[in-house]
């Protein structure tokens, strides 16, 4: 049976940290769906279409990775697409409580939805989309934080905001 994993997130925008988790998930599962999802606690800077396009360009070299969007519950999406695992990256202990809570809630809503955590590589421990947005908006160098294929468009997008 083909094993499908979903990597959900706001991806506003995708960072090298996200990409590392997606790449490693693509080696563990037959197919990985990078799911741009709605986090009701966050106002997105980039539109869902832009975020998906950034992900598509950054993952173009990973043949078993596709991108999708959902404005519903992740637990329902998992059921609809036949995925067996939610893959998330864990940066530090500070991520754990929030991620643990979401993993438990998703399991309650869909008992087949297992959450798998991959530990972030040391160099990405501090990296987050919000840090990229803040530095980029103020004209700082974000080239070490985001994939090179989309650097220019992210920089341009952030300077306009
Ligand atoms: O990158 P983020 O913002 O930390 O990702 C959080 C996200 C988008 C994965 C989470 O908010 C989510 O799963 N949203 C979809 C709606 C949903 O299912 N919410 C309940 C989660 S337990």
Summarize it.
This protein has 161 residues and is α/β, with parallel strands linked by helices. The chain has 6 helices and 5 strands, in the order βαβαβαβαβαα. It has a 5-stranded parallel sheet with strand order 3-2-1-4-5, sandwiched between helices.
Describe the structure.
The protein is of the alpha/beta class. The protein has a single domain (4-126), classed as Rossmann fold, CATH 3.40.50. The chain has six helices and five strands. Strand 1, helix 1 (16-28) and strand 2 form a beta-alpha-beta unit. The radius of gyration is 15 Å and the shape is globular. The site of 4'-phosphopantetheine (PNS) has 13 residues, from strand 1, helix 3 and helix 4.
Write the layout of secondary structure elements.
Layout: E1 4-9, H1 16-28, E2 31-37, H2 48-58, E3 65-70, H3 74-81, E4 85-90, H4 93-109, E5 114-119, H5 129-137, H6 148-160
Parallel strand pairs: 1-2, 1-4, 2-3, 4-5
The structure holds 4'-phosphopantetheine.
Determine the number of helices (DSSP H or I, runs of at least 4 residues).
6
Largest β-sheet summary: 5 strands, parallel
What is the radius of gyration computed over CA atoms, rounded to a whole number of angstroms?
15 Å
Portion in helices: 40-55%
Ions, cofactors and other bound molecules: 4'-phosphopantetheine
> What is the CATH topology?
Rossmann fold
Rounded mean pLDDT is 96
User: Strand order, biggest sheet?
Assistant: 3-2-1-4-5
CATH H-level superfamily: HUPs
Subunit structure: Homohexamer.
Subcellular location: Cytoplasm
InterPro entries: Cyt_trans-like, PPAT, Rossmann-like_a/b/a_fold
Pathway: Cofactor biosynthesis; coenzyme A biosynthesis; CoA from (R)-pantothenate: step 4/5
């Amino acid at each position: 049976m083909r094993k499908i994993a979903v990597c959900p997130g706001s991806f506003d925008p995708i960072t090298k940290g996200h990409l590392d988790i997606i790449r490693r998930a693509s080696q563990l599962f037959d197919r990985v769906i990078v799911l741009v999802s709605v986090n009701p606690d966050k106002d997105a800077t980039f539109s869902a279409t832009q975020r998906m396009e950034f992900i598509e360009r950054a993952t173009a070299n990973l043949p078993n990775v596709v991108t999708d969007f959902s404005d519903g519950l992740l637990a329902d999406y998992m059921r609809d697409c036949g995925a067996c695992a939610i893959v998330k990256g864990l940066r530090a202990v500070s991520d754990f409580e929030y991620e643990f809570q979401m993993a438990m809630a998703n399991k309650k809503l869909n008992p087949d939805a297992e959450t798998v955590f991959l530990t972030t590589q040391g160099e990405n421990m501090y990296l987050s989309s919000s840090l990229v947005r803040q530095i980029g908006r103020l004209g700082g160098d974000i080239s070490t934080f985001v994939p090179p294929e989309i650097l220019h468009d992210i920089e341009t997008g952030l300077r306009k905001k």
